[in-house]
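Reader question, answered in our methods column.
A reader sent in the components of a multi-part assembly and asked whether the whole thing could be modeled at once rather than chain by chain. We filled in our standard form and ran it. Here is what they sent:
COMPLEX SIZE: two components
ENTRIES:
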Amino acid sequence: MKIAVLSGKGGTGKTLVSVNLAAAAKDSMYVDCDVEEPNGHLFFKPEEVKSRQVAVEIPLVDGDKCTGCRVCVDFCNYNALAWIGGELKIFDEICHSCGGCIVLCPEKALKGKEKVVGQVQRGKSEGVTVFTGMLNPGVASGVPIIKELLKETGGKEQIFIDCPPGSACIVMETVAAADYCILVAEPTLFGVHNLSMVWELVKHMGKPCGVVLNKCLEEENPAEKFCAEKGIEIIGSIPFDSELGLLNSNALIAVRENAKYEKLFRDLLLRVTREVRP
Amino acid sequence: MKQLLILSGKGGTGKTTIASAFIELARAKAFADCDVDAPNLHLVAKLTAEPQRKDFYGLPKAEIDAEICIHCNRCRDNCRFDAIHKNEDYHVDIFACEGCGLCAALCPVKAISMKPAVAGELILNDKDTVFSSACLKMGSGNSGLLVSSVKKQMKDAAENADFAIIDGSPGIGCPVIASLSGVDIVLIVAEPSLSGFSDMERILHTAAYFQMPAAVCINKYDVNPGNTEKIVDYCQENSLPFVGKIPFDNEAVRAVNSGRTIVEGSGHASQAVREVFKNTLEILIGLGDEDDE
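And here is the structure of the entire assembly that came back:
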């Protein structure tokens, strides 16, 4: 089973939930798709790490062959090419790597060159395979790295995908790969507003889902109210607790540190498993 | 117009809480929410009128006319975004399509056309103060373009404002890069966790990549004093201005849930945010002097 952990809002506890579920499952895989800010590896501290660079193809011009016809300039919807001062200029950072200019150039003056956008790392932490994507600073899109991660996700019965925040195209990629989605919500109006956005996305994609309430205080919980109104299943709740907060802020895996949290996440894991395979 | 952008790398460190406090303290005449993927600033911005909303068009998306299509597969072979699927007929996955137009350019029978596509909504409040924001359509790309439009909308509507506060999005990718352009200083809201530290380093590298001056503050610093110290040391070692630390305060959650800003109370956090605001402004004013010389 592949479980995607999402939230809409950042900082609600996606990494806390996905890391601890993977650790509670013991023989499992943890996939960090939050490639802009990957943090799961800080918790797992994986060993035997193997890294591989991820590259996209961008155009390179052969000035001798280019006749200045500007077919490529006119074609590029991203304005990544320009004819300036009798010369073709290519703006690597704006290029979306569609490859159109290379295909369409009548003189075959453009060819592809690799541009590294980040890397994927695979390692082990006890029984957990830790698979992480990392985007290089200055690069706009992490989608190629996420695609690379999802292509190689498998080989374990229980797979937990730590998703990026938001509800944009990049999140959709990760949701599409999942059998079940866990939405992590915090008890603030901000949290509820973003929860509703990501819930719409999950619903639209026809994926079953449940909510985990995090940082729960004694007072009224707007996220809980939202779930009741919309008929969304609440599959677990994690109390606001300074001990857990401290463990988490020191990048320690609560499940491995304290039997109390091991029970909490084992119970959640059982519940999730029941939801996926009734 | 001097522009202050608030970023964090990691989500949930308190960007919007601090942005809304700064707006209150500065009595800002212009502000914007560039977190188009998960906007929240409007929830505490105390707006008195209904905003104007208009559709935001991203790049056009491909559409295949099944009547004309001869199933030659050229579009599918050449699409780098895996956006063209084949069941009985060929069709475009509009969420995957990035609007490059290569399929339309290659189709030998002109079965593919590029159709305008709404990628989100631009929202503007301009009664009393200018508040520019947007909401990206679910599953959409083009968030960088939308962020640029939010900032342009703010500048156009508030030509005479001398100071603007911009709430940014988490991460280091497309929307963050778009939000960086044209601002004068970035305030990074860090949190004292090892995750927060790692994310802060990544956003600082990104700001440096685009040669943007940055200052750092720490929110909820007392949750982990050891990590707070590490962040302060890091700033010192890297000659980054450190503008203050804000304690954890339950009042902050209550304030947000009742649509208030944190500086409307008198708690510890409120005092600390005032200090951070003062220090950040001093740096911004200093940068201004350099520009004039």
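What stands out: The first helix of chain A runs from residue 14 to 25. Chain A touches chain B through 57 residues (CB under 8 Å).
Send us your own complexes using the same form.
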